[in-house]
Amino acid sequence: SPPGAHHNVVRANVHGTDRVHNLYEIDKNKLGEGTYGSVCKVIHKVTRQVRAMKTISKATTPDLVRLNQEIDIMTQMDHPNIVRMYETYQDTKNVYIIMELLTGGELFDRITEMGCFTEDDARNLMKQIAGAIFYCHNASIMHRDLKPENFIMQNKKPDSPLKVIDFGLAATFKSGDRKATKAGTPYYVAPNVLASDYNEKCDVWSMGVIQYILLCGFPPFWGDTDAEILDRVRVGEFDFPEPEWDAVSDAAKTVIQQMLMVDETKRLSAEQVVNDPWFKQAGGAAPQLHDKVMGRIKQFQSTSKLKRIALQVMANQLDNDELEEAKNAFLAIDANGDGTLTYEELKAGLEKISVNLPPNFLSFLDQIDVDKSGRIDYSEFVAATMEKKKFTERDRCWAAFRTFDINGDGTITKEELMQVIENPDLRIDNAAQFISEVDSNQDGRVDFEEFMAMMLK
């Protein structure tokens, strides 16, 4: 797996469809219809959480290998501005993907409604887009189809966060790789992609086009036909016509020019975009770091290994409104904007709000870093800062318990744990020990009451 890729400690569940109908109530009204499938709303029968379910027909999907690749990529993604995938199911006819429900509509529709955004609003949206893409590139993933239709607003509020969706054309890459497959959409596609010789900076070009459109309401490269648009893209010439661009700062124009360089070697990387002076300006409220969020981290260190993994399962299942505080704290501490926390960033974040660091700080961080990647991923941070009242609700605990109890007999065995835990280093770390730490009657398995006792401890 590529360096920097996030490992979900718990494998995204892949089940037969009987489980879909056992676990979820399915709303027959479709939320959307795509080329190969449809999306509807579903409600988790135990936790009552509302999700979206994408149903993809195997018969009409041209490339099942590609679909599985997309699911693999989505499973790795763990970032506040990337749509979260919870689990997948399949039967002979369909693949079912359970994802977070986003209700705010496409960024494209917001642009159509607003005409164009203020510079502060555009900056706020672009920071989220650039942060998500920097994270993807660090995880060795290029998206290849960035356009306003592939960003969905989380809710209807004016300051709603936005999320990248649709990794259908995404590809993994190694540093220095060149790609040749043509992918993308005329207005947003990079000239190097048209020439079938490009790297991950094709995403930066698309971001430049999106930023241009957000600030003025029309694209930098246009024409009456696709062929005309593509001719203009190949040449890469554009300008900032009056009167639309008169009020826009030089800093905003400069970063667009640096993103829309035909020569990839001169084009900014996603990391340089995130750290560009225009992006660093304060636009909108900066994420807040709450003392109480950070205070909870200290309680996390004394928990058993199984409990830490159970908390991560729950963190992955939380709804957006429940994640708000932790998300803001995470973004406030993530100094370089790459969507993961280094030990240094977390230490600086704790010192900033004068939390006394425990003397065993490094071993303490090691406990938060459940997948042992050397960095703290978003859901690991959420798990370590979750409020006790959330993780001790019986319904949530039951839903987490069911993740581990594969055969549904009401107990968790070490064999089931071995199947559920994704990271090979963790498995060797002896599933039997995880079980015995919480197995109060020492029968070699954990029942739900023992599991609850562990969560309440």
TrEMBL record:
> Which superkingdom is the protein from?
Eukaryota
Q: Which residues form the Protein kinase domain?
A: 25-279
Transmembrane region(s)? none
GO MF, one annotated term: ATP binding
GO cellular component annotations of the record: host cell plasma membrane; motile cilium; plasma membrane; symbiont-containing vacuole membrane
Bilayer topology reads: Lipid-anchor
UniProt-listed Enzyme Commission number(s): 2.7.11.1
Q: Which UniProt keywords apply?
A: ATP-binding, Calcium, Cell membrane, Cell projection, Cilium, Flagellum, Host cell membrane, Host membrane, Kinase, Lipoprotein, Membrane, Metal-binding, Myristate, Nucleotide-binding, Palmitate, Repeat, Serine/threonine-protein kinase, Transferase
Q: Which cofactors are reported in the record for this sequence?
A: Mg(2+)
User: What does it catalyze?
Assistant: L-threonyl-[protein] + ATP = O-phospho-L-threonyl-[protein] + ADP + H(+); L-seryl-[protein] + ATP = O-phospho-L-seryl-[protein] + ADP + H(+)
* Task performed by this protein: Calcium-dependent protein kinase which acts as a sensor and effector of intracellular Ca(2+) levels probably in part downstream of cGMP-activated PKG kinase. During the liver stage, involved in sporozoite motility and thus in sporozoite invasion of host hepatocytes, probably together with CDPK4 and CDPK5. In the mosquito midgut and during the last stage of male gamete exflagellation, may play a role in the rupture of the host erythrocyte membrane.
UniProt protein name: Calcium-dependent protein kinase 1
Supply the source organism's classification. Answer: Eukaryota, Sar, Alveolata, Dinophyceae, Oxyrrhinales
